[in-house]
Structure formats: C-alpha cells, structure tokens
Known about the structure:
Largest sheet: 2 strands, antiparallel
Mean pLDDT: 90
Strand order of the largest sheet: 1-2
Number of strands: 2
Number of helices: 4
Shape: elongated
Amino acid sequence: MIGLVAALTAAIKAAGPIALGGRELSPWFSSIVATMPAAVLTALVVTTVFADGRHLAVGPGTAGVVAARLIAWPGGSVILCVLVAAAVTAGLRAI
Length: 95
C-alpha cells in the first residue's frame, strides 16, 4: 500500500511538468499557485483547531493557537510560538 501511494504521488507530481512541456505559466496563474501553500496550511490549521469530531468547538487547542498568534504578531520566533502554544494547550488540558 505504501509503495502504491508513493508511486501515485510521484505520478501526480510528474503530471504538471509533463503537461506543461517546458512552457512558462502565465503571471496570473503563477500568482494563484504561489498563494496555494498558505491557503492549504490555513485550512489545515483551522480544521484542526476548531473541529471536534463532527462539530465546531473552541477548546484548549484553540487557546494555544491564539496564544501563539499573539507571540508571532510582533515578530516572535517560530520556536517560541510553538513552545507557547504547546504550554497553553497542555496547561488548559491539565485543568
């Protein structure tokens, strides 16, 4: 199964360059492609933070992300953001 998934992933990644054949993307499409990683990451974070099974919920994970955002906003380091988020989430779950 792992080999099949790896082969399928490689085929999907190869499809783009093969289909383009060395042509350049239009500036409009390049700008869309450039914003996709941020959009996908945001979607993953939002669904992980606000999902509780089948319902939307606010809990310790949400508080941890908010605390990390407060640290990141003025220019805090990523490591500090992760540590603060983990500490706040673990602290609230322990309560």
